[in-house]
Give the backbone structure.
Amino acid sequence: MKVRTRSTAIFGTLCLVASLALTTASADEPATAQQAPKVALTKVTTAANPTAGTAGPGGTVWIAERAGTVRTLSHKGLSDPVLDISKEATTDGERGLLGIAFDKKFAHLYISFTNLEGTSTVDEFAVRKGKIWPETRRTVITQTQPYSNHNGGDIKFGPDGYLYIALGDGGSGGDPHGNGQKLDTLLGKLLRIDPRGGKPYAIPADNPFVGDPNARGEIWAYGLRNPWRFSFDAGTGDLLIGDVGQSDWEEIDWAPADSEGGENYGWSQMEGTHPFRGGTEPANHVPPVHEYDRTGLGCSVTGGYVYRGGAIPALKGQYVFSDYCDGAIRALRMKDGKVTGASDLGVNGGEVISFVQGGKGELYVLDIGGGISRIDPA
């Protein structure tokens, strides 16, 4: 598949931040070359600038479109919009409808978007018999954004049943406000909240900074620049974050399922394993498990999922990810939080903005230009 030119990029500002070398390496040790599993990309359908997706009830996959619509994908194809907030969302810069998630029982749908003022917003809807009830809508959490880039916006429910929310450092370049290392702001963080435990939400008592008067209790991890896409391994519960870099390095961060939170991933003192503009490595810095430089065609890591489907046995247990600018689909072999091998799967997803994990563990690739493809055995 031919790689799209950058002039077609709708999220062009994402492409200014880093790049991808065709040879990759673990932050801790060199990754050994191994034979890549044989896969193919099967185009399933086309949407209007798809940005995110999630497994839905009844074996469906729900797709968020950047302008503010949500559609369902089933064996019948892509539905008409089941939700439309396009009059409430702004799409300047890197904004729009950016995240979508169901709770474990498919009883509530959560959407993450930037409203007309550019404020990051997470709203909740009740879902009954697979259908959204618009009259139940309520706002769970908001965060003012100083700039139109690095807003983050991904949301996922963890194995613990809590809602995790990724927020970038607020934008511009180089983290001018130092938000990544500040604990009194939600920017540059991964949050963990209980959306049904209070009004509008509750903070879990075991969050790492609960009780610290100088820190926000919602924070689970910090030192992130733009954690555009993160996921939990459906097999182990481990957390993986694709954090978009600034100038030289893209990174993938990892935390074990039994983590108690509080990880500092280093930004903006560090970019990957490297001091950023004379920065000093924090004593509690948790380095990435994988990083790549900008000697290739890439520019912005798109985090994916550990493959737990059944269609491609050779890929099982590997972390699948890509880059928005070069579109190559890649995989990491990992053991005990260390990368033991890296491979290029030999297929290209275009301007890969996100991955979606279906209910049976199979993975879909979203191209911001419209294509929705499934990773199948070759």
